[in-house]
Amino acid sequence: MPFVTKLTFTSGDRRLLDDVVDGVKSAAERKGVELKGPHPRPPTDYRVPQTKRLSADGGRFESWQYTAYTRTIEIHGHDEFARDAAGDDYPDRIHVEAEIEQV
């Protein structure tokens, strides 16, 4: 039975994220792998409050803000390529999640 592997790449560095995803896509095209994507999701903005001291009355610094970008790729069949792509050594700023579904 064929499998569909969904790889989700997330990073705060959009250029690096696009370079990594484009690299996976071009490798798939060279090997003849059926691939759908990359599908971009809307960026997610995060706000993290920071305290000046550990006590509750220690005051606060300005909140730390950052944006996370996400791209999703679906690989149909080609289990070996999907395994290699999911387990590849990506830069530390790239987070990869793999979701496998049996069709």
TrEMBL record:
Molecular-function GO terms, alphabetical: tRNA binding
Gene3D superfamilies found in the cross-reference section: Ribosomal protein S10 domain (3.30.70.600)
Matches recorded under InterPro entries: Ribosomal_uS10, Ribosomal_uS10_dom, Ribosomal_uS10_dom_sf
Record key words, sorted: Ribonucleoprotein, Ribosomal protein
Region (Disordered): 30-51
Top-level taxonomic group: Archaea
GO cellular component, one term: ribonucleoprotein complex
A biological process term (GO) from this entry: translation
Keyword Ribonucleoprotein set for record: yes
Residue ranges annotated for the Small ribosomal subunit protein uS10 domain, each copy included: 6-99
HAMAP family in the cross-refs: Ribosomal_uS10
Function, as annotated: Involved in the binding of tRNA to the ribosomes.
Family: Belongs to the universal ribosomal protein uS10 family.
Assembly notes: Part of the 30S ribosomal subunit.
Protein name: Small ribosomal subunit protein uS10
The organism of origin for this protein: Halosimplex aquaticum
